[in-house]
Amino acid sequence: MTAFVPTRTDDSSHTPDEGRPHSPSPPCRDTTRIPRIPRLPRPPRLPRIAAADLSASVAVFLIALPLSLGIALATGAPLQAGLVAAAAGGLVAGRLGGSPLQVSGPAAGLTVVTADLIQKYGWRTTCAITVLAGLVQLGLGFLRVARSALAVSPAIVHGMLAGIGITIAVAQLHIVLGGSPSSSVVDNIRALPAQLSHPQVAALSMSALTLTVLLAWPRVPGRVGRMLRTVPAALVAVAAATTTAALAGLTLPKVDLPSWRSHALSGLPEGPALGIVAAVLTTTLVCSVQSLLGAVAVDKLTARRPAQQGRSDLDRELLGQGAANIVSGTLGGLPVAGVAVRTSANVQAGALSRNSTMLHGVWITVAALLMVPFLELIPLAALAALVMAVGIQMVSLHHIRTVTRHREVLVYAVTTLAVVVLGVLEGVTLGIAMAVGVALHRLTRTRITRSVGPDGVHHVRVRGQLTFLAVPRLSRALHLVPPGADAVIELDGSFMDHAAYESLHDWQSAHTSHGGSVELTGRTGARLAEPHVKDDDGQSSHCHCRPWTPWRNHHCESPETPPPGGHRSGHQLASGISTFQRNTAPLVRGELARLAREGQQPSQLFLTCADSRLVTSMITSSGPGDLFVVRNVGNLVPPPGEESGDDSVAAAIEYAVEVLRVRSITVCGHSGCGAMQALMNTEPGGARTPLKRWLRHGLPSVERMTAEDRPWTRIAGRAPADATEQLCLTNVVQQLEHLRAYESVARALEEGVLELHGMYFHVGEAQAYLLTAAAPRDEEEGELFDRVAATALYDTQA
């Protein structure tokens, strides 16, 4: 969009006479328009880091340092690889990711996968696999498939994490006891009795001390406990074990960080091609799913913050994780993913932006370069105890209760057991197969029963989803109902396919033609809209609208065959009222009775167009008593002081603000507005019809749109489709200015008890846009309408 400014006739370099106030001459419009000179770019400013981000980064660093070393120890990788992954996760994923508060690094969920890769292919090839997995993540991010990864059942994800946690705990238990673990979980379990019978006292004592401090530190009561909990328990536990071992002079295996000059970097992958491909896919799957679920969990943690920055961009998060894995693998680091423990600590410490995540990466880098002598004092038994505790926590009782409540415990158990015995990829594959089997079982498990009540009414009850697989049993039950009898069909399910609907519809038609009656109800007894009804003349209307459709702008009547006398519209109105009395009134009667007693107390005034396609309750998800609605042609707000005849809108505004005390007023325009089209096409002069007299209040919007010294109102991310849409958007902003001119509105705004909002609804896209409060990036953009996103919520803490 090119903006123009009028030329000036005055000379800006002219010095005004002394003693006379200088008044610049007004701008003169000229037929020759010159483009506005672009501004020179401002010099870059140094980023400003909030104190909350600085303190949060230190807290996360103190947790990440021992955990990174412990996870590297558990995988069998060089201990420095954990620090490299933590630094790459903080700096790269923290800067590029779509979840600013999520902290990435070496994750416990990747321990089993990485340990298996190191055993099979060696460390350099494992680094290459990490790089390839990062490239795959980049590709998936560019394809924008991040949301589809969340389609995996939470029971599978929780089962995978539980299986990995069990594997970690069993392996680290050997190091806690002073031994060394095997690569197989089964072998580790078999070797446990012998290891338990001959423990090393020094290693076991340091591990016990670590676990004791780890469990007791968060439980110190009182004010002292609140002060102590500012220091992470993991850091205190490892520091206590390290100090005790040094003071007691215990001889224990300790952290060994070789020189960075001998640090192994990534090499070319060596091994069978199919094995490498399977390893890359496994690493990609675990890294991506854990990171995306972690981003969703961050949104839950920050949802109630007053200064929330919006939901995570999952596709961008996938790109950030892919870039971090490429950097980490290239520099000889572990695979990177979002880590729940560090992320939770980051949020709880009050982090405000991605600066805290990136600073934590800086501190990790400094520690890896300057704190090597101190890190080499840490006993390996203390790190093993710390990682074992993390593995045990991955078997979450909350997750088990959740999957049990949703009847998915079988999927959880199969996934967990398969991950422990077979491996991560095999376990997830079996979990997906089990989830599909459970879903098919639920879809086909339909109970159909028939009974006869004391009043002779035949009841056919359908429990479950009604699909083509249940049609034979449904037909048998329905044909047991005698011709001419009264029947009630009770449908207790959320789905009915076409075959089942046709079977039920055909039987209903035949049964009613023989003098019987059929009533379709839900489980609660509420009557459903019937698929086949008769009009007042006894003729079938042949309505094929689905009986389970809650709302649809459908027309059951056929326009080719109007009824005698042409009273079809009246019949449709009466039919709609009758349907309301049967189906809706019983559900809302209690709420309406409460509103009748208490009176209306709406929270906002909603001023929108009279267009029949705008259903205010639908697009705002509101109910009775929520909105005080004013509708008129063009959602216009006449400026105060206009001549009489336009007092209706002004009266509604005054009543809403002064009497109802609404807290907000929303002006909602929409696409394809006929009033705006009329404004664009109206010729000057002509008859002053009521419509033309009303539309004169929209002329300021036309002037605002065509003014050359005003930036356009637009939708963020795209240009307006045509001039009519541009006028619709501009009209919303102009009517908000008219609102501010009302005395009652201006007073409420000054007192801070009222807010004004602009909204635009695109009918064809079913998409709502809100007028943003943030300043535009460029003053030429003008006011911006931004898309209102719809984001699914997932019940997970992974």
UniProtKB/TrEMBL annotation:
Parts of the chain that traverse the membrane: 49-74, 121-143, 155-177, 197-218, 230-252, 272-298, 318-341, 361-388, 409-440
SMART domains: Pro_CA (SM00947)
Comp. bias regions, Basic and acidic residues: 8-21
Assigned keywords, A-Z: Membrane, Transmembrane, Transmembrane helix
Region of interest called Disordered, as start-end residue ranges on this chain: 1-41
Listed InterPro entries: Carbonic_anhydrase, Carbonic_anhydrase_sf, SLC26A/SulP_dom, SLC26A/SulP_fam
Entry keyword annotation includes Membrane: yes
Membrane topology value: Multi-pass membrane protein
Domain SLC26A/SulP transporter: 52-414
Subcellular localization, as worded in the UniProt entry: Membrane
Keyword Cell membrane recorded: no
Family (UniProt): Belongs to the beta-class carbonic anhydrase family.
Function: Catalyzes the reversible hydration of carbon dioxide to form bicarbonate.
Annotated protein name in UniProt: SulP family inorganic anion transporter
